[in-house]
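Thread: manganese (II) ion complex, take 2
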Amino acid sequence: VREGGPQADPPKEPRRRVALTHPDRIYWPGEGITKEGLADYYAQVWPRIAPFVTGRPLALLRCPGGIKGQRFFQKHAWKGISKHIALVKDPKAKAEEAMIAINDLDGLMALVQSAALEIHPWGSTVADWDHPDTITMDLDPGEGVAWEAVIAGAQEVRQRLSDAGLEGFVKTSGGKGLHVVAPLTPKADWPAVKAFTKALAEAMAADSPDAYVSTITKSKRKGRILIDYLRNQRGMTAVAAYSTRARPGAAVSMPVGWDELDQIGPDYFTLTNTPARLDALTRDPWEDFRPAARPLDFKPPRARKR
Ligand code: ATP
Ligand code: MN
Ligand code: MN
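Output below.
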């Protein structure tokens, strides 16, 4: 119920303290989605996206002219950056260049204002840069791979994570594939997490060489799924849950339930249909994401001497 009586203009919601310049600028021309439309989307999903984008170093895909214009992948602070964006210093970086993080909705709105059409967090937080709290296994289907095969690949990743005592959650990438994401209690360091994810990907490729590859050699990917474990290295990023993608169709990376996968595709959820999906959800399939965190306990197998 709005105050002010029937004669008064409905007041604009005082939601945003970050002013948007050029709110009518078109970011996704195919869908007619503007900068203001992007701000509205993030305001709506804020409670759900917050745990995935706050308090961690971020890389941004910035597209000031929308998805058809120039784009740059930005990992550091820039001149004139909003005061709502936190400048953070990588304790291991030699250069003085600041990296960026956000702490609240104003920060997210400042990212919108700076035309960040994709948000790519690290798998660790600014509270503990060197001990990841998230694993992301990125399944990249090569040409000709059926969606059912991508689902099967994700389920196999989930099973192998489970064998290691970790719980895998799945989200669409908003592009072509799926991401299986496992919460970690920050304890193992980056080299240990990378070694674990590499071993997982290599075991899948060794056990099913017709279905999976673990190296990025393009020629080997036709008809196979790349189990891309390289998101799990210090300084690498993966697109955040609920982040928009700077691609035609305005898809978002959407957390889903394992039982939903056969009813959707990797770009099924979009900026347009997401608010209705979230309203209709009786239970968030990622509700237990953070409580499911466990420490990684992995000793890389010693290379056999020949
Ligand atoms: P898809 O399902 O289409 O594969 P995706 O998000 O998984 O979608 P990938 O190409 O598999 O896309 O992953 C690329 C990853 O590399 C992104 O998640 C991002 O964090 C990172 N990345 C993207 N662009 C750059 C860039 N220009 N420089 C460095 N890293 C990037
Ligand atoms: Mn991918
Ligand atoms: Mn990839």
